[in-house]
Specification:
- The complex is a heterodimer of chains A (185) and B (291).
- Chain A starts with 11 loop residues before the first helix and ends in a 12-residue tail after the last helix.
- The radius of gyration of chain A is 19 Å and the shape is globular.
- Helix content of chain A is 50%, strand content 0%.
- Chain A is built from 10 helices and no strands.
- Chain A has 2 domains: 12-101, Fumarate Reductase Iron-sulfur Protein, Chain B, domain 2 (Orthogonal Bundle), CATH 1.10.1060; 108-173, no CATH class.
- In chain A, helix 1 packs across helix 6.
- Chain B has helices at residues 10-13, 17-29, 45-51, 53-67, 78-91, 96-103, 118-127, 156-159, 169-176, 200-216, 227-234, 237-244, 255-263, 267-270, 274-290, and strands spanning 3-6, 33-36, 73-74, 115-116, 143-146, 180-181, 221-224, 252-254.
- Chain B is globular.
- Chain B starts with a strand and ends with a helix.
- Chain B has a 4-stranded parallel β-sheet with strand order 2-1-3-4, with helices on both faces. In chain B, strands 6-5-7-8 form a 4-stranded parallel β-sheet, sandwiched between helices.
- Chain B folds into 2 domains: 2-119, Glutathione S-transferase Yfyf (Class Pi), Chain A, domain 2; 135-290, Rossmann fold, CATH 3.40.50.
- The chains are: A mainly alpha (185), B alpha/beta (291).
Chain lengths: 185, 291
């Protein structure tokens, strides 16, 4: 992600949408960096969480091209340590939603993981690991890299070929209603 | 006798079968009743809320409604217990998620159900004196790193259990089983969860840091209470040694497997590698020599 030039892309509607969707008051963040200090994944991403917060405060559209907003693992460390009760993970989540809509997904595998997961439970009522695993392998292109785990699991009967379908699947599928919240689009 | 509504969750039916059977074994020995929630569905885990928060609340909520006339839910998987707890917080207020549930035939009644993790349920039993006289094979001399990971204790407003930075409940459970919990730095650090499928190098680096921290603490074994923590931290130790700087391979089991061994649960139910029993015996012998 090119962080330079980010200030050219200010969009106050973006800021407002992130605030509404995440439920976070962005101005509460004074950029102390405690979130970044504790974030386990920040060293492996393009920008750390306090920069996510700053770009969100500015309404910078550059945020939507960031890998970090997709690869936050929701471990809760940032929010737990934030002196002002702000949750950067929710800001990442909201920004990722918007970046999907604008077609700027910077981490395709993270997007496939969440969408594929929900698709799998909607189909069966429970997750079907083999099906999700195959989707993930296709999206990362790492065709052989997970066989060292996958094959022993399969042989131990820990990765069933067929999915377990719940009985009340019809009723369960009625629960998949989106954008129920104020501010969701 | 305490009776719980049992929510195994998807992993305990597949990749974490030994967590399921060892939980059942341990709860049996501690006289804690488990009635499986009929036709339970996936809680949505760490992914559904990333797609849509309202939908995630509704799908988790179905399980709350199905459990409400059984009793408090025990969900051994850290991600399931946190997700279900979060759904309760959302559903306590009148809102569109409750209406979606009702339209599908699942009426949520506020205050009708609570959720605890398996660690919480066992810790309560310990606090209430239910361990007394039940530790048949104390794990003497065994040095244990209790690995909590993220979601058992974070975020604190949702988990409402133990300390989010330095949790000690599992250490106390292990101590009561006769073992010696070690002090170590990474007990509540993240293993990278399902992102093992997104960015393997990142997750394997995180896992290496965790095991090396347990090594520095002098642990013989690591115990977990989360299927993803277990799967990530247990796997690929030779690769981690070759490429990621892992110092020493340390076995990783569910806390219910080791506790089960101390309580005298059948080996079949614990599904623990024979090498772990040898490790327990070796620690016991060493302790005798020292003692």
């Amino acid at each position: 992600m090119a962080v330079s030039g980010q200030l050219k892309s200010i969009d106050m509607d973006l800021k407002k949408e992130i605030e509404e969707r995440s439920g976070q008051k962005l101005s509460m963040c004074y950029l102390c960096g405690k979130c970044t200090a504790g974030c386990p994944v920040a060293p492996y991403q393009d920008i750390p969480p306090h920069v996510v917060m700053r770009l969100a405060q500015l309404g910078s559209r550059a945020l939507l091209q960031s890998k970090m907003i997709w690869n936050c693992v929701s471990c809760g460390t940032c929010y737990t340590r934030c002196p002002n009760g702000v949750d950067p993970a929710k800001v990442c989540e909201a920004a990722a939603h918007i970046s999907k809509r604008t077609g700027q997904i910077a981490s395709k595998p993270a997007s496939v993981l969440r969408e594929g997961f929900v698709e799998s439970i909607k189909q069966n009522g429970r997750i079907h690991e083999l099906n999700l695993g195959v989707k993930m392998v296709m999206s990362t292109g790492d065709y052989l890299g997970n066989l060292d785990i996958g094959i022993p699991m399969f042989l131990k009967g820990k990765m069933p070929v067929s999915a377990h379908k719940i009985k009340d699947l019809d009723k369960f599928q009625k629960l998949f209603k989106y954008n129920l919240k104020k501010g969701d689009k | 006798m305490t009776k719980y509504a049992y929510y195994p969750g998807c992993s305990l039916e597949t990749g974490a079968k030994e967590y399921d059977t060892s939980v059942r074994g341990v709860f049996g020995k501690l006289d804690l009743g488990l009635t499986e929630i009929p036709d339970w569905s996936c809680c949505g885990s760490s992914q559904a809320h990333k797609v849509d928060r309202g939908m995630a609340t509704a799908i988790a909520g179905r399980n709350l409604v199905l459990a409400s006339d059984i009793g408090d839910i025990v969900a051994p998987c850290a991600s399931c217990s946190l997700t279900l707890k979060e759904a309760i917080i959302e559903l306590e207020h009148e809102g569109p998620e409750r209406a979606v549930l009702k339209d599908a035939g699942y009426e949520y009644l506020p205050g009708s159900v609570n959720v605890v993790s398996a660690v919480e349920a066992v810790y309560r039993a310990l606090r209430d004196g239910q361990f007394e006289g039940k530790i048949k094979n104390p794990l003497e001399g065994l040095k244990i790193a209790s690995y909590y990971g993220c979601l058992l204790v974070r975020p604190p407003e949702v988990a409402k259990f133990d300390d989010p930075e330095n949790p000690t409940s599992m250490d106390k459970i292990m101590e009561a089983a006769g073992a010696t919990p070690v002090n170590w730095s990474h007990k509540a650090e993240c293993c990278g969860n399902a992102y093992i499928m997104v960015d393997k190098n990142m997750t394997l680096s995180l896992v290496t840091k965790i095991i090396n921290a347990a090594d520095r603490g002098g642990a013989d074994i690591i115990v977990t209470a989360c299927p993803l923590c277990q799967a990530n931290v247990e796997a690929r130790h030779s690769l981690l040694q070759q490429k990621f700087g892992l110092k020493r391979s340390i076995p990783v089991v569910y806390f219910t497997q080791l506790l089960g061994a101390a309580l005298g649960v059948d080996k079949g139910k614990l599904a623990m590698d024979e090498s772990v029993y040898k490790l327990i015996e070796k620690a016991r012998q060493a302790e005798k020599v020292v003692g």
